[in-house]
Amino acid sequence: MKLTCMFSFTLLFGATGLVLFIHLQDLAEIVQQQIPGSKLNLKVGQTTRKDLCTYNSTFGKTEASKSVQRPNQDSLSGPVSPMQFPAFDRTQNPKLHNSRELKGNVLDVRSAGIMTRQRQLLLKNTPYFKALNSSTVSTSMQGDTKWDKLYKTQEERKRLIRDVCAKYKSNSKKTITPHHVSRIFVEDKHKLLYCEVPKTGCSNWKRVLMVLEGFASSVKDIQHNTVHNGNHLRRLDSFDKQGIHERLNTYTKVLFVREPFERLVSAFRDKFEHPNSYYHPVFGKPIISKYRVNASKAALRTGSGVTFKEFLQYLLDVHKPVGMDIHWDHVNRLCSPCLINYDFIGKSESMREDADFLLHLTDAPKNLTFPTFKDRHSNEERTSTKITQRYFAQIAPSDRQRAYDFYYMDYLMFNYSKPFKDLY
């Protein structure tokens, strides 16, 4: 009897243990499935969410993230989309950006089981999102050799500005005031901030902003006086401190520049070689009065006929008879690139491709392109390198050197070469 009871108890205990073991196995599997990332099967060399958090999406890698391993070829073929890694450093390994790796993988992250927060981090770290703070990019642009080249150009231009500012300027502790943003125009619909540098296509860029804002359907419908006197676009300094701060931190900040001597000659031709009811009396009269020997009464009365040599004398004079003007002032003074971190640096010399790139990045209407027409003095040849050299040939070498020194920071900051061989 005792033997039978003992046998039955042992059998019952064993069956109970077996059921409990099976139940615990099922429970372990259920718990494992709730752990984020457990199904990603990360391999050696793959980046984790912790690594993503150490990535600086504005300037590249931080010191803490330099040790993050890059994905190898095996990991790229695994179940995890390549775009869950931080944006690759193009300067070190541009081959990782070919179209075969990016095509179809940029936005297709749902199948990888990545959480919503992770997906947002990945999108913000895509290469083209870094170029512009608030713009997303269509998948058709990514992996395209043309866009890759333009993106790399943007990174180089911005890096040069940072390097020059770090070396020559001490603005790191200065606060951005309304004065620093007084030349910046705001386009709220596409979240653009455009700093106006005269004689760099600013009239046409303001036309583009007005179309983006909805004031006109075409850039051709906007007259020159409407552009500059219509007050359709708000300046950034018209907002309160909070409005300025929010836009500087969330909008795409755009700056276009031009070769300094060429910009100077363009301004002179526009303001002094054509009738002008403002620049002739306000600037022309004091310039002629101070720098022209035996000036005629008519010239002193009207201020017309200022020569380029006289204009340059005024520009280089420490004791100017009249102050500076935005049309020939330094870009550094107009737009404060050492204080404001511009997201896009365009150049007049590459206007067409820079403009196309910017409009694509900002998701502008496909029928909107940067206008090429010249609405003032349209029959006159545009100021070019050849024309610029012709004007400066009238100037003594010592004054050319002084003019180059005057614009030296613009030459250095925006990577323009010396316009004359005898400059040092």
Shape: elongated
Q: How many individual β-strands? A: 7
The percent range for helix content is 40-55%
Largest sheet: 5 strands, mixed
Low-pLDDT runs of 5+ residues are 26-140
Description:
By secondary structure, the chain is mainly alpha-helical. It has 19 helices and seven strands. The strands form two sheets. A five-stranded mixed beta sheet has the order 5-3-4-6-7. Strands 1-2 form a two-stranded antiparallel ribbon. Helix 11 (260-272) crosses helix 17 (385-392) and helix 14 (308-316) crosses helix 18 (397-406). It is elongated.
Label this structure with key terms.
7 strands; 19 helices; single chain; two-stranded antiparallel ribbon; five-stranded mixed sheet; mainly alpha; 424 residues
Q: How are the SSEs ordered, and which strands pair?
A:
Blueprint: H1 2-33, H2 49-53, E1 55-56, E2 60-61, H3 73-76, H4 99-102, H5 116-124, H6 127-131, H7 145-168, E3 184-187, E4 192-195, H8 202-213, H9 224-229, E5 234-235, H10 241-250, E6 252-257, H11 260-272, H12 279-291, H13 297-302, H14 308-316, H15 331-335, E7 344-347, H16 351-361, H17 385-392, H18 397-406, H19 408-413
Helix pairs in contact: 11-17, 14-18
